[in-house]
Each structure stands twice: as structure tokens, then as C-alpha cells.
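ok so I'm stuck.
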Amino acid sequence: MSFSFTGDKILESLLAIVLWIFSYLLGSISAAILVCRIFGFPDPRSTGSHNPGATNVLRVGNKFAAALTLIGDVAKGVAPIIIARELGLPESIAALCGFCAFLGHLYPVYFDFRGGKGVATAFGVLATLHWPSMLVIGGLWLLVFASTRISSLASITSFFLAPLIVLLFKAELFHPILVLSLMLLFRHRHNITQLVKGEEQSFRKTSQRD
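replied:
not stuck anymore, here's the structure
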């Protein structure tokens, strides 16, 4: 059951601001760092690719820890949007809740603003806003990764094309997904440089930077 605040714009605006702050704070919870602490693995920011994400947790830990990290990062993108919808808020406000969670993942207030690259959380946001687009973008990610075994290349390729894919399926999401994708690509700038130099290693090699 959902509630509606459409009759009271002031209340709706105040609730939106509260949810945006909540979404950022939720996104700031780093699943990778917490999982590694619980299991006694090294801080993912200090070893491997130095990225607090599922791929690096797999590198420094194990598959179970990486799976928990992936679930946590995806959930951060899903939960705020669902909450906003259940409160009867407009889809534009719900979409911004997802973006705030994504922003929190990139720049977490709890961890000195040293966050991850946002791929899993971005997929969570996409899946909740428009799951057909997510399936296409996710399928592209899998195709590139299966062909190259380079996680960063799969992420860069899929989110480079994500705004165009969203434009075909749900045009009103083009601008928010464009901003999200540009930020994600910016976070992968080191990987892009490594790819251009031919120095980005495949996932099979433990020395890979993600």
C-alpha cells in the first residue's frame, strides 16, 4: 500500500529532501569495506585494485564475500527508489533518490569520501527505474566481459552506451542516466588510460586493476 502527498506540495518537497539525504547516507555504507572487516580480509581500498567493490573483494577475499558485496551495492540503488514510490512520490523524485544513493557510493561520508566506481549500485538504480533497459545494458556488460574477461572494459562499454539504450526504451530517463553514466565513466578514468595503453589486464590475473 502506498501513500500520496500530491495534495500538499510543501510536505512532498520536505519529504523528498529527507529521502534524498537518507539515500545519500544509505549509499555511503560501503558493503565492500564492511564485508572485508567482518571476514578479516584486507581493506579493499589498500590492496588489489584499491576499489571498494565486488570485483576487488573477490580478488582479496573469496566468492561468498564478493557476492555479499554485490548484493549490498545493488540493494543501495534499489531501496531508496522503492521507498519513494511506496510513499506516493513522483517518479522524478524517486529517480533522484537512486542517484543520491549512487553518489553516496562514489563519495561515502563514512569513509573519507573514498568510494567505489558505482557499477553495481548503478545497475540497482537502472533495474528499479526501468528493468528492460537494465537487462539490455546488463547483457552488454556480460557480452563484453565474456569476450575480454576485463571487468572495467565491460563497465565502460555498457555505461557509455547506457544513455542511448535508455533513450530508446524510456526517453524521460535519458538525462538522469546520462549524468550517472558520465560520473561512472569519470570514476573509471584510470582504467580508460590503462586500456588505451594496452596495460589493463584481464580478470584472470590477480594483478588486474578494476
